[in-house]
Amino acid sequence: MTTEYENKGNTAVADTDDVVLEVSDLSVTFPSDDGPLPAVRQVSYKVRRGEALGIVGESGSGKSVTSMAIMGLLPRNARVEGSARLLGQEIIGLDDKQISQVRGQRIAMIFQDPLTSLNPVYTIGYQIAEAVLAHRKVSKKVAMARALELLEIVGIPSPEQRLRQYPHELSGGMRQRVVIAIAMANDPDVIIADEPTTALDVTVQAQVLDALQRARQETGAALVLITHDLGVVAGQVDRVGVMYAGRIVEMGSVEEVFYRPRMPYALGLLGSLPRLDGDRGDRLTPILGTPPSLRDLPGGCGFAPRCPMARERCHEEEPRLLAIENGSPERETGDGLSGHTAACHFSEDLVGAEAGDLFRATSVDTESVGSVAEVEAAESQVAEAREGYRGRRTRRVPARPPTRPDPRSCSPPPTWSSTSRSVPRGCCGAGSARCRRSPGSPWTCASGRPSRWWASPAAASPPRRGCCST
Ligand SMILES: Nc1ncnc2c1ncn2[C@@H]1O[C@H](COP(=O)(O)OP(=O)(O)OP(=O)(O)O)[C@@H](O)[C@H]1O
Ligand code: SF4
Ligand SMILES: [Mg+2]
Questions:
Q1: Angle at the Cα of 11 from the Cα atoms of 8 and 15, rounded to 5 degrees
Q2: What is the C-alpha separation between 256 and 44, in angstroms, rounded?
Q3: Domains in the chain: boundaries
Q4: C-alpha R_g of the chain
Q5: Alpha-carbon dihedral of residues 16, 21, 26, 32, nearest 10 degrees?
Q6: pTM over 0.85
Q7: How many CB atoms lie within 10 A of CB 195?
């Protein structure tokens, strides 16, 4: 693919070791009335050109704030310390004008919700072309041609037609692919994708991930893929970093972290993930508890309150992120570029460990007393609620109208009015054909079936016209 566009603009200088983004000891603190909130603590990593790094972690672990700090998108009151070097250039602390020259050109970000990234009042074509024109001195025609080319790359069907449409006319998956097209518009060196597939169904997720990979191939950019989906990470990235309570607690190749984790939290995350290659009947082993409040972090290891391996030292001293050699931590920290690093005082104890060795399965059909008791309590609550509902329903439903009594059981026996023979006087008023004074009387249908005479009280006397017995 060679275009007029391609030969202009991006003058990125390759670093000697091909590292495009180097983040060192990056910390972010938000001031608040309740005290400072350390959202990100000493995060360090490096990404090579063309490499894909996954960042995983629970909600609130600081994944997005780390990326927003790198992109210069945090509010002014956020205190950002440490360094992020893009192709050797420090980008933390740049003013608005300087960072806007970098953002979108050398580093681009894809956010979770494409609707908030796209402007509803401009067409798709206009918005992609605008991203091109912001950093390139090309004509509108060339920018629009580039927009068309980008839509084709990310796999949007009928791209010429889509160029003229507005965001609301596209599906969620298409919108996310448009955002990917905008991100790759200027052949950036790094693309940060923050949960790009969340809230999309599995088929559309696959299309978006495919578009991301194509963006990576076309631009040669490094990809930082933030997600809570370990399945996505396993299939899409080369290395993975696990974040917990604002810091990276384990980092390594996908194989190292997935098959030989050296930090109990990473092992626990894997144990809580359903596996297609697992045995039928295998139980998940969730990590009990919740992450600590960032305002009130425990003194030692942040994972200690939830860690089945926690010992005294864990509550006193926060473990450093150390390189793992032969299953044991070395004295030196890793270089953030290769190798396996973990932050755990007892990471060597995890050699050969499985999630089930540390964390308990909590399905209802295990021996876990707590969970069975909980289920029983829940069941009895449901039963009570059901009873209560039945009671209310009985009271609310109006009583059925009383059924007409069988006149044969009337006491005293019915007598007949001389003027209206249809209604037995003194009777309950049911007026049924079964009402008889006595069997065989002239006013009674011998067959027991109603006579028309009954139905025609104006007739003064017998013969019983139309009676079945006549
Ligand atoms: N602008 C802000 N002001 C104050 N606190 C913030 C701000 N932005 C984020 N935080 C806090 O920083 C912490 C980390 O948030 P962050 O958005 O990075 O989490 P995350 O790992 O991306 O979670 P998720 O998976 O839910 O997106 C959270 O406790 C959050 O409340
Ligand atoms: S340092 Fe201690 S509490 Fe923290 S993960 Fe390791 S064993 Fe668990
Ligand atoms: Mg986030």
A1: 155
A2: 18
A3: 5-237, 264-289+298-358, 363-397, 413-470
A4: 39
A5: 160
A6: no
A7: 18
Q: Is the CB of 222 under 6 A from ligand 2?
A: no
Closest ligand to the CA of 79: 1
- Whose alpha carbon is nearest atom 4 of ligand 1? 30
* Cα 346 to ligand 2 centre (Å): 7
Torsion sign, CA atoms 416, 418, 422, 425 = negative
User: Nearest residue CA, atom 9 of ligand 1?
Assistant: 65
What is the full DSSP assignment across 385-400? Answer: HHHHHHHHHHHHSPPP
Separation of 239 CA from ligand 3 center, angstroms?
A: 19
Question: Which amino acid, 45?
Answer: Y
Domain 5-237 in CATH 3.90.550.10: no
Task: Indicate the pLDDT class of residue 383, thresholds 50, 70 and 90.
Answer: low
Residue type, 166: Y
In the predicted structure, residue 121 carries a pLDDT above the cut 90: yes
Average pLDDT estimate for 204-224: 91
Q: From the CA of 68, give the closest atom in ligand 1.
A: 18
Give the integer Cα–Cα distance in Å for 90 and 102: 11
296: Cα within 13 Å, side-chain hemisphere: 4
Helices (H), 279-354: 312-316
Q: How far apart are CA 218 and CA 155, in angstroms?
A: 13
Tell me: the pLDDT tens digits for 150-194? 999 999 999 999 999 999 999 999 999 999 999 999 999 999 999
For the CA of 319, the closest atom of ligand 2 is: 1
| CA distances, 385 to each of 75, 311, 375, 398, 470 (Å) | 48, 44, 15, 22, 63
Q: Where are the alpha helices (DSSP H) in 84-201?
A: 96-102, 114-117, 124-135, 140-153, 159-163, 172-183
Range 367-380 burial, b when 16+ CB lie within 10 A, else e: ebeebeeeeeeeee
Q: Which residue has the higher pLDDT, 76 or 387?
A: 76
Here the tokens at position 398 are 């109006």
